[in-house]
Amino acid sequence: DAVPSNNLAPVVVRVVRDKIRVLQVAGAPSWEVKFQRRFLKGDPSVDLVSFFILRTPRDITGEYRDQELSLIQFPYKDLFQRDLWSFDIVIFENFDYQPYFAFQSTQLLGNIARYVEEEGKALVMIGGDRSFGLGKYGSTPMADVLPVRMSDQGESVDEAPFKPILTEEGSRHPITRLVPDLEENRTLWKGLEPLDGTNVVLGAMPDASVLLEHPTRKSDDGSPLPILSVREVGKGR
Question: pTM for the complete prediction?
Fold first, then answer.
């Protein structure tokens, strides 16, 4: 061989041993939901189960016959009683539980709280007009495991565009550290497009880590309004 150096090529092989099972439940289809589904489905290490166009019990008791409806009934009992424990992560994306299982909410949402705190699993809640206080989660068992404090009254959505501020803790956290260099990471966050708005919560839990905060709005204790927060509760997060 005249040029033996071109006989070798370095290749990075990613070995996936165990898949991460993710349950995504969204209150309505949106661009954010579409992005999340594509992102997760594109990862070979993720086994995704997604629900984003849901049939409510009102559809069943209404004037429509079952054969006239194109959607199956949202299997919330199976998901949050029997199948919940097989997932590693549950994502509630702008999801309001009340139209689906309000009469069983204490039991089913309590299962999710135990799933995090006792089973060591993960819960993600993404904002919108059906999330956090607007979704009436402040008086449910899930409120005990979320990283923010909520109220079921007087809470709103601030629709004014803004650029979130990266906190000191956020600059070092793996979720918000886009690149290894701290200064370059801060520059990247400053260069991102503004967000369209945010849920207005009461504030962060005392043991939560705030990674992104609002530049002007304040929590009820005077601290900046949390935009992205994480928290470890019991064995989970």
Answer: 0.85
